[in-house]
Write a structure and sequence with these properties.
The protein is an alpha+beta fold. It has a single domain (2-156), classed as 3-Layer(aba) Sandwich (Aminopeptidase). The protein has helices at 28-38, 44-52, 60-74, 119-133, 148-156, and strands at 2-6, 16-22, 79-84, 87-97, 102-110, 138-141. It has a six-stranded mixed β-sheet, with helices on both faces. The longest helix has 15 residues, at 60-74. The radius of gyration is 17 Å and the shape is globular. 28% of the residues are buried.
């Protein structure tokens, strides 16, 4: 676990401590809700829904929430939960390809009122340290072109763009 002080912007507010702790399965519903809200506007599944409507009876939020199920099934010890004063405010999900030496960050999400305060940076820094301690040599994170905030954050942490990808979807 790690603790970091979160400065408050109001005059009479006190500083709070963000705790980054391991994932517990009962966190999943809250993390799904936070992740779906955080990916509004920067989700491939949302782009698909704009073109085709709900697919197979499910909306983009349902499909995005399933990504957390996949993360928890693949590597539950790679999910880290952020809390302030006992309130879950976000998470970062990771998985490791030890043979290749690469750590992956598929999801990073924070509650809307906690964004823009450096907390996402703290979560990524925590994940990167986790990868280093595991002996990995590189970390990979992806974002969409419309996620300017993510692109700025990732490059400020030393990530470098290596490729651009276009996602296509066809009705069957």
């Amino acid at each position: 676990m790690i603790r970091c002080v979160v400065p408050q912007t109001t005059d009479n507010a006190t500083n709070h401590t963000m705790l980054i702790r391991p994932f517990h399965p009962d966190d999943l519903p809250t993390l799904k809700r936070i992740t779906v809200a955080a990916f509004d506007g920067v989700s491939i599944d949302q782009g698909m829904q704009k073109l085709f409507g709900p697919i197979h009876g499910h909306d983009w939020q349902w499909r995005k929430a399933r990504h957390l199920d996949e993360d928890a099934a693949r590597e539950p010890n790679g999910i880290f939960v952020a809390e302030i004063d006992g309130r879950i405010i976000g998470c970062i999900t990771t998985w490791q390809d030890r043979e290749a030496g690469i750590g992956h960050i598929p999801n990073l999400a924070l509650e809307a009122d906690c964004r823009g305060q450096g907390l996402g940076r703290k979560l990524i820094e925590f994940a990167l340290q986790h990868f280093r301690e595991s002996g990995l040599t590189h970390a990979k994170i992806e974002t969409l072109a419309q996620n300017a905030v993510g692109e700025h954050l990732y490059t400020s942490l030393g990530f470098r763009e290596v490729a651009r990808q276009i996602h296509f979807v066809a009705e069957l």
